[in-house]
Amino acid sequence: MSSPKKVVLAYSGGLDTSIILKWLQNKYNFEVITFTADLGQGEELTPAREKALLLGIKPQNIFIEDLREKFVSEFVFPMFRANAVYEGVYLLGTSIARPLISKRLVEIAEQTGADTIAHGATGKGNDQVRFELAAYSINPDIKVIAPWREWELTSRSKLIAYAEKNQIPVSKDKRGEAPFSVDANLLHTSSEGKILEDPAKEAPDYVYQRTLSPEEAPDKAEYIELAFENGDPVSINNEKLTPAALLERLNSLGKKHGIGRLDLVEGRFVGMKSRGIYETPGGTILLEAHRGIESITLDQGASHLKDEIMPKYSELIYNGFWFSPERHMLQALIDESQKFVTGVVRLKLYKGRSQTVGRWSKNSLYSEKHVTFEEDAGAYNQKDASGFININALRLKLLAAREKRKKGKL
User: Does the active-site annotation cover 361?
Assistant: First the structure.
């Protein structure tokens, strides 16, 4: 790699990215621009600015942006239209945040005349792939520096020694081994590593940050009504909310009732298995509600097709292909299916569970007069089912007859 002139660093203000900042200055001797995204991680971002200034970054080279509304409306909600889950259970909270961060890194690089971006993802994880595939999808000429794939700072003690040598403040709780690593945004929190690396051992209670345990949740159920328009949620209990505010409200409800915990051993894109503790309280409620409203507004064929393509769509997001043509193609199909997904779902929140207990829509395909066990006034002729069954049974009868003939010859 030729020596870059400027680099835009995805910067959290934490110890690791502060060390990366200094390492980039020392190794490449160029101007560093920091970018910190507020995606609803629940942390005060002012310290990130102060830390960057302390490390010699010019004020005009410090970018801190509130991207919560964009994150939810342009990334989270489109994903939930697909009912996307990875390996059957994971709601992709980390995966869906990376393309937005990468997009802004590349845009800021273009704005500031930088030819390089840098991130703090390790060489073992999925995030390095997500950051870089997204970046190259937007600018094929961008250069990427991934310090964890280059440097010799391969342990916590080496990182701290480097920080002290370069006068980077190290908080006392970072001087020992961190108990686990945490990633957070408005959709979820993810905890990995250290005490969680043995998948046979139950995660300690203190790992969970965004939810009460179901045992601690209220003994009385709470009912809410979530309204949808064209597949996206728009209000809770008749109160219209912005996308970010709505997800934040669902997070509060989910936290209160112990909803959204997941202990998962997943297959990383790079090939290894990893164990993570995920908390997605609002997203868990949203997924249940979206499936609830689709159950009465989405045609059976469309619904089943969506379920068939969902694993592929989810895998694309997990593996970092948000900006790929195939994800865009699938998104177009999914969005087409949502034209009539409008209505209200009533949910029961209780002891770790979100359950649909009612749903209604002006676009409902549900017909009580067709399915009733009482008189249907001629809405459906039950005798028609005989011909339907005979036609569908024909090939099965022919197959069975062939097997019968074969056995008769033995």
Answer: no
